[in-house]
Amino acid sequence: MSTLGFREAFEALVPDAAAPAWLGDLRREAFQHFEAAGFPTRRQEAWRYTNVSAIAETTFELGSDAGEDASVTRAVNGAAFGETAATLVFVDGRFAPDLSRTLPEVATSLSVSWAGGSTGRPGPLGELVDPKLHPFAALNTAFLCDAARIEVPQNVTLEKPIHLIFVATPGARRVHHPRILVGARASSRATVVADFVSASPEVSFCNAVTEIEVGPGANLDFVLCQRETSPTFHVSNLAARVDRDARLATHTLCLGGNLVRNDLQVRLVAEGAECRMNGLYLGTDRERIDNYTEVCHEAPHGTSAELYKGILAGSSHGVFRGRVIVAPDAQKTDARQQNPNLLLGAGAEVNSRPQLEIRADDVKCSHGSTVGRLDEEAIFYLRSRGVGTEHARTMLGQAFAAEIVDAVPDQGLRDALLALITARLWTTGEAS
Fold first, then answer.
1. How confident is the model at residue 2 (pLDDT cuts 50, 70, 90)?
2. Is this model's pTM higher than 0.85 or not?
3. S-S: 154 plus which of 43, 139, 185, 430, CB 3.0-4.6 Å?
4. Quick check: 238 and 223 in contact, CB under 8 A?
5. 54-63 in b/e burial notation, b at 16+ Cβ within 10 A?
6. Residue 14 — pLDDT band, cuts 50, 70, 90?
7. Could you give the dihedral angle defined by the CA atoms of residues 412, 206, 147 and 321, in that order, rounded to the nearest 10 degrees?
């Protein structure tokens, strides 16, 4: 599949005057990796169930960075969910200061750092996601113009979440490449919410990359909320490194899109590291949502627990492939993985492949997957208590999703997510 359109856009890219010299080299190297690899195809095992030709064959345009557009403001306001420690808004991948509220020394953007004279390359930029293995991540780096930069200092606890909002300006075939860098230093504690929203119902492409470092004894919750409109193409790569006695919890909520692909890789690199991965994907019509996760246990006494749930209506297609890799030295590992799915439409489909690759002999590991439909006896019970059929189906869908939503650490965000999920269930056709 051709990469020509992106080559033309890359050659036309005008560098920021304040950007450091190393950025140009990083971009060029990344684009070389992208062109060498090309777009992934279904011949590759990791992409077996997902065809990205619709992205490859569409000519996208970089946004105009018009942060004052009224529809952008409405999208940002609609994403609000309660009190936050900071709210950072990025329009077409660039920081929008007039729509944001930063937290000095903790939550800001790379462009602000550059304007302030900081020219060093921030860790973990480009260190955790391998552009040679992930063509879309290489494409993101090639068009890197800004990034959300979160640095939680040692021993600091943030009581309220940091909210990152990413939106593209209105217009057909817009593309933006959000970048997120998170560092939770030793014994810190924080919640970061990455929110991807739409400013218009037009076809667009969001290609995001997140890199996370969790220091010794730190505790980080990272929420990825993908709630763009149905014509959206959304590809996301998240890579994390978790240190000794640290905990990372990821909450991935995919609430629709033409084609959605999330890659999530977590490395537990030191003794006592812990990872919890929660996910919910809700597809309608002919949407396709693909989640590919990988947990690498590289040290003893590591713990991972993964629960991804799918709700698929209409003729939507869900994919889950989860790998748990236990290295030879990672004795006393405790790893669990579950992927239950609920099919609401006669044409709905799911491919589920939980996998264990165990190279140590003193471990506790389990995995499983289920696929089912709504319990007709439960629907009959609710109807016998005066609940209408449409309401009964929605209530059962809510109950199925509740375990994932309840794990999100902020009450305001939980309420907002539940409202979004309920609205989606009411409009699924078969579910309502």
1. low
2. yes
3. 185
4. no
5. ebbeeebebb
6. confident
7. 80
254-275 in b/e burial notation, b at 16+ Cβ within 10 A? bbbbbbbbbbbbbbbbbebbbb
Q: What distance in Å separates the CA atoms of residue 233 and residue 295, rounded to the nearest whole number? A: 25
Q: What is the pLDDT of residues 223-243, one digit of tens each?
A: 999 999 888 999 999 999 999
Q: Which residues contact 376 (CB under 8 A, 6 or more apart)?
A: none
Q: Are 322 and 351 in contact (CB under 8 A)?
A: no
Tokens for 116? 């302030």
Domain boundaries, the chain: 4-270
Helices (H) and strands (E) in the chain, counts: 9, 21
pLDDT tens for 111-147 read: 998 888 887 888 789 999 999 999 999 999 999 999 9
Residue 307 to residue 309: CA distance in whole angstroms:
7
Extended beta strands in 298-360, E state? 303-312, 317-326, 334-343, 349-358
**Distance in angstroms (rounded) separating the CA atoms of residues 387 and 407:** 28
Comparing CA positions, the residue from 404, 409, 373, 413 lying closest to residue 307 is: 404
- The conformational region for residue 301 under phi > 0 = left, psi -120 to 50 = alpha, else beta, is left
DSSP-derived pairing of the beta strands 288-297 and 259-268: parallel
Q: In one letter, which amino acid is 157?
A: T
Calpha distance 102→108 (Å, rounded): 6
The single-letter code of the amino acid at 314 is G
Dist CA 308 CA 306 (whole Å): 7
What integer pLDDT is reported at residue 305 of this predicted model?
A: 97
Flag whether pLDDT at 329 surpasses 80.
Answer: yes
pLDDT surpasses 80 at 427: no
Q: Which residues contact 16 (CB under 8 A, 6 or more apart)?
A: 111, 114, 145
CA distance 92 to 62: 7
Nearest residue to 368 (alpha-carbon basis) of 417, 404, 335 = 335
Strand runs (DSSP E) across 173-269, as ranges? 174-176, 179-184, 189-196, 204-214, 219-226, 233-242, 247-254, 259-268
Nearest to residue 190, comparing CAs of 84, 276, 319?
A: 84
pLDDT at 61 over 70: yes
